[in-house]
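Quick one from the shared queue. A colleague (R.T.) flagged Alpha-galactosidase/6-phospho-beta-glucosidase as missing a structural entry in our internal table.

Convert sequence to structure tokens.
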Amino acid sequence: MGNVTKIAFLGAGSMSFGLSTFRDMFSSDALAGSTLVLVDHNPDALARMKALAERMNAEGKAGMIIESTSDRRAAFDGASVVTNSVAIDRMRLWKHDFEIPRKYGIRQTLGENGGPGGLFFTMRTLPLIFDITRDMEELCPNALFLNFSNPESRIVLALGKYSPIKSMGLCHGIFMARGALCHITGQSWHDTECWGIGLNHFQWMLQFRNRRTGEDLYPLLRAREPGFDPAFQPFSRKMFNVYGLWPSCSDDHMGEYLAFGWEGGEEGHDYDADARERVELQQTIEGVLKGGPLPDEWKQSVGERTNVVVDGLINNRHHYLESAVLMNNGTIPNLPPDLAVEVPAMVDAAGVHPVSLGPLPDPIAKLALVQAGVQQLSVEAAVHASKELALQALLADPVVNSSDAAVKLLDELWEINRPYIRKCV
């Protein structure tokens, strides 16, 4: 047993992300004796996920103590890590973020991390994030804010600039890229590794190698990609052939940042499929809670790495993280220092340390710099609750192709999001 700690998990009522976190936390005994406090404002969802956590904790022999509360301040008292997966009225507002710009001729792939949707996700989310971190300043000022909520880059950037709380983001995008590369090349997942840098959802794989021998697998990728199924990630492959490196993490996420991102055929989120999957997952969870067996895959880590970060921090294990969203501060030297980037990192008791792999290739850096400016402006608009800055952020975004459309969608989305927009500093 290592050192014990207290972890507050905000948004624990989320079935999909809650399950992913539980799979990580309960797949080893590295955190035995530590307390995991589940926090959610929905009492039914919270009760369901607490019962699932207790079952998985027991069967996984993780040896953790499970608590729950609707009061985040109670959870923060004495916490070492606060994990965050909250979103405000996620599906309803996300639909507005996508459909209103489309009404005015703005083509987004998802409307979540880039484009007008990314702006308004930022506008309504940052006030809540700063409410959370102000509570942390009072109750657990030395705790790490570990973020999983979108828009990842903008949340980490805002906190890095305006909050004393230590923060970082985690995303499984690099593993999605590795999966795609293994799929095309026919390599085993366990035999490969990727080293990537860039922005969240806009990482570029500088290295794709055999984990054991160090063999460079890019020549194999270049040989096999032209003859591979043309329906598989056509936009990522187009960018790969233009720039020479594989981008992360998928056509729809990467396409959010580019004026031509929809050329991969990805436009919008399948809300109906999402709703069906949630119903199916709820039925599966309820079956388990009625005494059914845990699915075998639930007994294994899903790779979100919450457990790895906490274990590194409290037990000083010196863990390597394939990627983390952190303030740049020179890690990627040809991107601005005051920007959130996604790079490899080391974690230990001294904190989270970004690993520099040098600069991005210059043409890719030029693409990333456009989005860097959009993200910086969006954060300023949200932090200052400024409609003027919000319009300027829209006009800097390559997805926005009309100033008249920008003004119209800004007015409409501002009214919808008005209950959540307020100054943060």
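Residues 115-139 form the longest helix (25 residues).
The first strand starts at residue 6 and ends at 10.
Added to the table.
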